[in-house]
Description:
The structure holds two protein chains of two kinds. Chain A is of the alpha+beta class. Chain A has a single domain (4-79), classed as SH3 type barrels (Roll), CATH 2.30.30.140. Helices cover 30% and strands 39% of the residues of chain A. Chain A contains two helices and five strands; from the N terminus they run E-E-E-E-E-H-H. In chain A, strand 1 and strand 2 (18-25) form a beta hairpin. The longest helix of chain A is centred in the C-terminal third of the chain and has 13 residues, at 59-71. In chain A, 34% of the residues are buried. Mean pLDDT of chain A is 82; it is low at 81-87. Chain B is α/β, with parallel strands linked by helices. Chain B has two domains: 1-310, 3-Layer(aba) Sandwich (Rossmann fold); 315-357, no CATH class. Chain B has 16 helices and eleven strands. In chain B, helix 7 (118-127) runs parallel beside helix 8. The radius of gyration of chain B is 21 Å and the shape is globular. The interface between A and B is large, with 38 and 53 residues.
Amino acid sequence: MCLAVPGRVEEIVEKSGILMGKVNFGGIVKDVCLAYVPEIAIGDYTIVHVGFALTRIDEESALKTLEAFSKMGLLEEEFGASEEAAS
Amino acid sequence: MKYLDEFRDRELAERLLHEIRQTVTRPWTIMEVCGGQTHSIIRNGIHQLLPAEVEMVHGPGCPVCVTPLEVIDRALAIAATPNVIFCSFGDMLRVPGSERDLFQVKSAGGDVRVVYSPLDALQIALKNPDKQIVFFGIGFETTAPANGMAVHQAKVKNIRNFSMLVSHVLVPPAIEAVLQSPGNRVQSFLAAGHVCSVMGYWQYPEIVDKFKVPIVVTGFEPLDILEGIRRVVLQLERGEARVENAYARMVSHDGNRPAQDLLAEVFEVCDRSWRGIGCIPQSGWRLSEKYRDFDAEVRFDVGSIHSNESTLCRSGDVLRGALKPHECPAFGKECTPRHPLGATMVSSEGACAAYYNYGGIIPAESLTHA
Lengths: 87, 370
Ligand code: SF4
């Protein structure tokens, strides 16, 4: 019940006083309660637990993290490569 | 899928692993608190790819596993009551009670229904006004906003035939309990990312100050977990102890304020016994006074049930990080996911089930190829 994957918000509606919406998880669309993420917009990504969106995914931060990962060890690789070339 | 495949990239995983190998000089013990992370670590073979110095110890963060036996027995008694529709998350059905499980109550004619969300149980209540609908409200701070909202809606909309059997547990007191347990070896923690997306991480500096252990808020995909480990190892090697957030795309310092407000309204902190571990003071939530009318334990008389735990099961040691699942003598013999002796063998987030299902023999191949 605790495993959750990111999904994309496709529809936002108010249903009997609660903010609800449809979230697409790689093709599977589910009804999700959006009451805890009132600022969310269509196209945003969110993580859902037992039918409730808990947070809006910060895309900028996701990209930054990935970029940091991809730079990791690059410096070393260059030095390593030049040493190899020298020997 | 977006923000999933990227964080399973194999080449980037190699880079992170390389960084960890470069950093580590001595043995360190790290606990991932959350069962979802345990699942991801074993499934992706991360524990086998790490340098030998880094030992991952699996924590108590599987709600199915720690729901106390007394509560399971109460659930079974309520579910077997005539005129009751008992609704639960699916993974609770096979959790062994003293004598049977919810699945057996269902087979014997009990109206036990699996729901995806507690709001579904509320719908069932509206459609069946002549029945009592009871929802089994368990979990950590991640499921609490959903369960809390269901009770809140029941009160606001005056749905009187709905009640909840609540057994919520909280992460920070569990971390403290691990650190205070005799013979504790855990030197640092990966904090559960989704719990923190609700609660933020403002609760952790106090623990870090008191016990001098690094705590890094960590996500669930392979790269997230490797990054959490990398940051923890860096702190440990430098002799530092800080709270860090390695899951900034999902977690902010303050967490989800609207959710926290509702939780404060619906629940109150209480002592809670954890299955296999025992009572941890102030480690749970129960319904607050205002919502007591919706408490299934008040509505149904199930207080005096006597519970008996299996004598073979060592899940308490597993949940405290003192024993690895495959070291339990019953593992894979008397105890399998089909015939579980302990709750840690039932839930997919349970450490025993993770070891049984993945056997720790699927290394990096399960990571996405770049
Ligand atoms: S393998 Fe089974 S009996 Fe052993 S600790 Fe795990 S759940 Fe309990």
